[in-house]
Structures are given as structure tokens and as C-alpha cells.
Amino acid sequence: MKTARYEKLESVPLQNININDTFWNSYTRLVKEVIIPYQWQILNDNVEGAAPSHCLNNFRIAAGEKTGEFGGAVFQDTDVAKWLEAVAYALCEDRDESLEALADYVIDLIAKAQCEDGYINTYFTIKEPGLRWTNLTEGHELYTAGHLLEAAVAYYNATGKRKFLDSMIRFADLICDTFGKEQGKKHGYPGHQEIELALVKLYEVTKERKYIDTAKYFLDERGNMPNYFLEERKTKQYKLIFQEFSKYEPIYSQSHIPIRQQLTAEGHAVRATYMYCAMADIAYEYEDLELLKVCESLWNNIVDKRMYITGSIGSSGYLERFTTDYDLPNDSNYSETCASIGLALFGLRMAKITRQSKYIDIVERALYNTLLSGIGLNGKEFFYVNPLEVWPDSCLPDTSKAHVKPVRQKWFGVACCPPNIARTLASLGQYIYLVDKETIYVNLFISNNTTFKLEDKSVKLSLKTNFPNNNNFKLNINSNKDNKITLALRIPDYAENYKILINGEPFAAGIEKGYAMIDGSFIDDTLEVSFEAPAKFIYANPKVRADAGKAAIMKGPLVYCLEEVDNGENLSGILVDTSIKPKEHFEEELFGGVTTVIAKGKRISGKNWDTHRLYCEHKPKLEEITIKAIPYCYWCNRKQGEMLVWIKELLKD
């Protein structure tokens, strides 16, 4: 089923955007100053006390520069790929010669490790040279290739240099020659999706049709019967890599049924969202309305029934996966940082295609909460898992909470999240605006200066704001021609009393798909936007058993949490009085300046309790308390302790 051709929106080239934002600078300034240099040291195994990376060592062995054994996981190459992608995005803002030279060194190393036929993968080159493409179920060859492809495209777009791109084109050509529906080719597809969206990016740069056709093939073939992975596991060449896959269920990799029959989000959350990104890309490129509707159904299932209030997804600590509708435990959930990044990428694609602000509402939530909780304010510590409730004493090895860490880690043995955070922060500009030939969509309220090229005119736009501490922003717009353009200003789902002034005069804009639409020439004009987004109590659907009888606090896109350092121990014994409106308080010295939220409530007291008894008939007493909440993204940046998002509600007679 096809739809008439239409133009999707595009992100603005990162070279055209300069971010200088009070809130986001705490993170974005770290990318070049701290995160990229720190991760370079990690990739070279030079950080004491951090889990070894082995990454660059593997490439040096594969390139013949040294001898040794392969180290790390089968997908270890992706760490350096995402690091290179982050470097590419950083170079868009500042063409730093020393950083570029470092990236060129790594690219030369990768090219030297490349096999004659174009193949790149240090695990199979060093450790299993005879087992290429024999374990698509677990081998991550196509996943790894995808991240290398994305990095190569990003580096070419940033620098114009072709060496990395040409190297990866050779690899992509090999993949296209190896996989497909034609006789003599492998009829498989990746166990971990990623190559699909990467091939789309390569197509967009090269205009070579076979790349996007192969991406479509991987999607179309997925889930057909007999199941490729189950059949592959029966072959003599198949070699089990991960013990947890000794029993394999196709639903884990979204290969249980064809993609057009998948209407609920299932299986591994990162695999799922990367696949949904590619599905959206292919739906647009091939004008496939049926596939686009599947994407919409999957999005709605996630957002309405399987997503945490923080924008995190993947509730099961076992196999990092979706479970069932409304199953959202707070203290044992997985909520991998990469999964929220995948959700943001999926939402961005859907916003580009449909021009609906509802997708950006969720993108914003994921970025402000789960992305940022995944990295410490020092840029050198990370969460892989993002729970909504933590009692450090219960985070014990070999238990149901073994995956939950009460403090951020220097690195991980499986370290997909830290470099993923790096590339996301470095490419934050892609989310702020979307454009077509005559319209600028303002999505995120982040201070920046940006130049737009709209068909036959150039537009300079300066956005100034102190969001989310204050709910207003000012746009100064200058155009080089007296031609009309349209500004589409997102009206977020939390905004109240939304107002627009143009050159000081009130303006009543028409609303289209959640955007305030404003037409004008804008030769030299100022727009001022204000709205209210007070701190308020939020409640979950009663079907979410973990949150029944509880309330959370939100202000704009920010979810708030309680920390032990502010509220004492045993946070689960706190009852919040939702009949009293919470108050906001700006603390200039905390986290570089943050709005905290103060609420009233009571604490279950153990003062009258016989400490030697586990149970008794005496009812605990309640003590009046003042509750202090901070943005969830900042938790565990002071000292280790308990954390809680969903607070028990004080019920009154």
C-alpha cells in the first residue's frame, strides 16, 4: 500500500548550529574537554580501575602492528566506532586539528585492519577467521558494521575526507554481495539490528540504490519462516558465543513474525528501537504507508503502555527486554541508556515524516531524563541501567538486582552506553530544529545561534532561554530576503497559558499538529514565547501495579526524584501530601544552578517499634516532614544513597 510522495523534514547540519545553553552546557562542554579524551584513554586501556576495553588493541593486532589474543566481547569494535562518530560531530562545531589528527590515526588503523575483500571485524579476523557470517544470531557482525558505517558517514559529513567512507563503502559492497534474496546469497539478517539504518545513511550520502535496497531486504526478510536463526543454530558451523542464548526465542530479536505484523514492542529494547528507526526510514523512502502505520502502532504501544515516566524503556533485567503492557517495576528495571537513545532516534524520524509534535514530546523527555542520568556531571562515570528506585544495600551480586548499580561506573565490560551518550550529546543539535524548503520547526528550547539555508534564502536565528528553570524563550530572526517563511513553534504537552509576542505585540497563531504556525518575512524580528510549566504531581495508569497509590513530581520535561542526602534513609517510608501544591526553589550553588521542588508529607516512624521484631501488631507513627526533590538526571552526583521517583501518597480520612 503506497502513499503519494511527500517531503520529510530534515535536521540542520551541525556545522550551522552553535549551542550555548545554561542547562545543556554542563554536558555538551564536556564532550570535547572531558568525554572524548577520557574515552580515548579508556579505548587504550589507560584508566586505572576501569573495566578494560581492548578495543584499539584488537585493531592493532588485526592490522598486524602487534601480536596477541582478541580481548572483550564480539562487538568490541563498536566502542571505537561510536567514539569516532562523537569526534565527527564535535569537529562540526570546532575543526580542532589535533582531535582530527587523532581520528585520522584511528581511521588509518581501521583501514589497515580491513581484509582484502573489504571485511572489517577484529573478533572474526583475529579469533574466528573461518566463521564469518555463520552466527548472525549472536555474532554482531552486521551490528558492528552498522556502527562503523554510521561513523564513516558522520566523519565524511564533518570533514569532507573520504578515506573512512571509501573503506566502509568497500565493506558495504561486500555485505550487499553477500546478503539478499538472489540465489547464492545468504538469506539472513542481523541478530542485532543497526546495519539497516546505517545503510540508509550511506545511501543518502552516495545515492547508491543498492544500499537502501539491502536495508529494506533485511527488514522484509526478518521473521519469515522457517526462522533463520533457529535454522542457523542447527548447522555444524554454528558456535555458541553467549551462554544465555543456549535457549533462543526469536521474539528476543523481533524475528518471531514479519515486521509488518508486529504491533507491540517486544524483545530486546535496543534491537527493537534501532529496527523501528530503519522501518521509519524505509517507510518514507519507499512510500510505504502500511509500514508507516506499523511504526505508529509500535510507537503508541511503547509510549502508552511500556515506557517509564523518564522516557526509559526495557523493563526486564533479564535479556534487557520489553515484557508486557503496564509491567514497569521501579527497583529492578533495566532501562538501558542505549534504549532511550534509540527511542529518541525513532521519535526524531517519526517527527520528520509526520510533522507531529507528540514525537518530540517524548524525545525531549528521554533526552532530559534518561540520557543525562546515564552520565555523571564529571563526564567520566556512567550508568548502563537507569532504575527509578534504588536501595544500595539490596543491589547485590547474583540477585534480581545484580544489574542495578548504586553509583556510576568508570566503564563497563560491555560498554555500548558511554560512547553512545558521547555521540548523542555531540549531535544534540539535530533535535533542536527541523526544516523543509520554507519552514523552520523549533522543537527544543535550547539556547543557540543557527544559520538556515531555505531554498533561495538564508536565515539567521538566535534562540535565548533559561529553560527548564524558566519557561520562556526569545527568538531573534534575520533573513537576507523579503520572502515569507513559516516558523513552527512546538507547544509542549506540559505547557499552560502559551503566549507569543512578535516585536512586542501579542500574536494568535494557528495550531497545526502541536505547533504554533507563524508566517512572515522576518527581515529583522523578535519573537517572545512564554508558557507556564509548574511543578506538579503526576499519577500512573492504575494498571501500573508498581505505581498504584503513588505520585511522581514533574516540572516541564524534567522528572524529579528524592535522594537520601536530602531526605534521610528509608525513602519508601515517605508519604507525600498531594493536597498541598509543591513549591519551586532555585538553588544557585547546587549542580551549577537548579530548580528543586519542595513538598509536604509524613514519614513512617520506627520510634515506637521494637527493633528486635520483624512484625508486630503496633501501627507505626507518622511524623510531619518537608520533602526535597531534585531532577532525576542529577541523582547520584553527590554521594551514594537511596533514590526514589514514585512516592507513596498520603491518604487522608
Automatic annotation (TrEMBL):
GO terms for biological process: carbohydrate metabolic process. This is Glycoside hydrolase family 127 protein. PANTHER family: DUF1680 DOMAIN PROTEIN (AFU_ORTHOLOGUE AFUA_1G08910). Residues 439-522 form the Non-reducing end beta-L-arabinofuranosidase-like GH127 middle domain. SUPFAM superfamilies: Six-hairpin glycosidases. It comes from Clostridium manihotivorum. It holds the Pfam family Glyco_hydro127M. Residues 16-429 form the Non-reducing end beta-L-arabinofuranosidase-like GH127 catalytic domain. Residues 536-648 form the Non-reducing end beta-L-arabinofuranosidase-like GH127 C-terminal domain. GO terms for molecular function: hydrolase activity. It comes from the Bacteria. Keywords: Hydrolase.
